[in-house]
Amino acid sequence: MMELKALIFPWLLVDIKLFVFFVVLLNVNLSVSRSLPPDEPINIAIMLPRYPLPSTRGSKPWLVAGRHYPYHLQMVVPAMRIALEKVKNTTLVVPNNISLIVDDTECWLNTAQFAAIDMMYIHKVMAFFGPVCEYALAPVGRFSTRWNLPLITAGGQASGYDDFDQYKLITNLKPPHRKLAHFVAALWKIYEWKRGVIVFHDGDAHIKDEVFMAGGVYDMLEKASGGGYGLNLTFQPFNEFDYSDERYVELLERDVTPYTRGEYSNRYVLSDRLLSIKPS
Ligand SMILES: *[C@@H]1O[C@H](CO)[C@@H](O)[C@H](O)[C@H]1NC(C)=O
Ligand SMILES: *[C@@H]1O[C@H](CO)[C@@H](O)[C@H](O)[C@H]1NC(C)=O
Ligand SMILES: *[C@@H]1O[C@H](CO)[C@@H](O)[C@H](O)[C@H]1NC(C)=O
Question: How far is the CA of 37 from the centre of ligand 1 (A)?
């Protein structure tokens, strides 16, 4: 848990600084390119999930309760307000009233697409911040192309977003998974590795960040192996919230432990530790 926070927090800071930067940039551009009448308000849509995310959808289990993402509304909206205040304090001030129109996407495609339509036709927004969740972003990204409105997000990393015709007005603040895949492929080549297993969490129905990340890397290495790397590459999904997940334990025992080196590779230590936390 601590490591997770340590990983997420620097990203959050980077994102917020970039948000501030983009707010400034956006307002300058809008006031120049559209010659907005000074009494016309500038509405900016913020579409992110509120914390906590619902753990059931209808009667169906959906997400493990308490899942935490670095882009919940409660974290980003205060930062956006500070950003706006900074913009208003600078010489870049536009006379127009700037409002943030906030809506909860629930990280869900359906909610996000209806919210986007309200944002456009009721609030007449001029830009979107978010959605970030990969599935929720897809329809809003396509609308933004159609409506010619900029969309800024810390998501959109899945390889589907490489389709620039569909999503040409999305600006990503994080690198696409394609970049990670290039890095892993290069590493593979340097060390002349021959056998690989891509292990990833696959338990949430509507947020598949890990699947998209693993998929991007897998696809690229597969392509690379077609190109003569001679890789033996397989993949193994498991549920990281379920310690009794047999697939994970078996994978470690069968494919990882016997072939790896180091302190934790001892077959005994590993299987004892994992099996001891299985419910009896
Ligand atoms: C901004 O909003 C306030 C409060 O709604 C209003 O009094 C003011 O006239 C608006 N300013 C402009 C420039 O539209
Ligand atoms: C904006 O300016 C006011 C007045 O000078 C100041 O109190 C406030 O802290 C400034 N806000 C930011 C975010 O810099
Ligand atoms: C890939 O590796 C696995 C595990 O080491 C082995 O069972 C399988 O036969 C290998 N496949 C190929 C095509 O070499």
Answer: 13
